Amino acid sequence: MIRISFDNSCFEISLVNHHLLPAPGFQRFADTKVKLKLVQSMANIARLLTKRAQDQFPNVVYPLQVITRLNSSCKYLTVHIPISNKSWEFIKTEVTGEKKNVAVITLNRPKALNALCNGLMKELSTALKAYGKDANISAIVLTGSEKAFAAGADIKEMAPNTYSQCIQGNFLNDWTEVARTQKPIIAAVNGYALGGGCELAMMCDIIYAGDKAKFGQPEIALGTIPGVGGTQRLTRVVGRSKAMEMCLTGNMINAQEAEKVGLVSKVIPPDQLLVEAVKLGEKIGTHSNLIVQLCKEAVNTAFETTLEEGLKYERRFNHATFSTIDCKEGVKAFIEKRPAKFINE
Q1: Which end of the chain is less packed: N or C, by CB atoms within 10 Å?
Q2: Residue 162 is assigned to a structural domain of this protein
């Protein structure tokens, strides 16, 4: 049976073996020509569907190369076709790192200092969903230009908003895909990260900042308040007093002060910022993607519950890791004094 799914971010085509061969036969030939022929067949089907998609969606460019993956139990084969970055208007995307396992998303509205418009946020959400499904990606770096990470929301686009429109349209609800993404996201912040830009950086898991970066929540000067975490995430990170000062005055803080109050993990020269962020992603990628995601969820839980409940949650996740293949491999590799070979299961 061939199982096909499609959304704005990718095709996924799965070949389920028990409808093609008896399971024992497939297991016996999994490492021989049968497996290779199945992979080639799925790749051909993927290319055919890609051609049809191009005919139906001419404004989107799909690469013809495909990613094939056979799960460890040899029960199904998945062909994953990511959407190319040539379709983007407001962002750029690339995959980098020595093992090509770190995705870089660059906000790309230079004339507007990367102001966050709805179009940009939709593209960002689409890219994040695609990389979230890509088994080859271990971490994601989100960055902007040297002048601005993101100088805030697009004020001209927001100007016509009314209270009733905001309530009934659930304004800003779709801006939080960064916070919902399971894979670790590193913000590489140069220049201004103000308003929505600061909030976007705080949705990421780790913030590296160039030494000229500036952070702030200046919404108060526009007669409004932060709407995507400026009063909530900022308070949890820097404390009530500092968050009050920043939100009530609109004053900015520099990268050095941001590091001092815990908003930023590390301050780096601007020309080395992206390189260091990618290196961090590569370091994370040396570990099991599965365990990394469990660890990320456990850390985030610390901000959402009591200490007692958080410790219980952490302990249960710790227990759960011992049922994984990767934990067994990691322990065995440590005992045998060799690098672990994780398979993310």
Answers
A1: N
A2: yes
Q: How far apart are the first and last CA of the chain?
A: 24
Domain with 19, as residue range(s), is 2-81
Is 153 catalytic? The answer is: yes
Residue of 97, 196, 216, 281 with catalytic role: 196
Answer yes or no: 199 catalytic. yes
Kindly name the residue from 144, 199, 227, 255 that is annotated as catalytic: 199
pTM over 0.90: no
219 is known as an active-site residue: yes
The structure tokens listed for 299 are 């850390």
Q: For residues 84 and 31, what is the distance between their CA atoms, to the nearest angstrom?
A: 31
- For 103-114, how does the pLDDT look when each residue is reduced to its tens digit (9 = 90+)? 999 999 999 999
Q: Which of 112, 115, 139, 153 is catalytic?
A: 153
Write out pLDDT tens, residues 293-324: 999 999 999 988 999 999 999 999 999 999 99
Is 345 part of any domain? no
Structure tokens at 262: 């815990």
Known catalytic membership, residue 43:
no
Shared domain for 143 and 259, answered yes or no, is yes
- Give pLDDT, residue 174: 75
Return the number of other C-beta atoms located less than 10 Å from residue 134's C-beta: 19
Active-site option among 219, 229, 277, 281 = 219
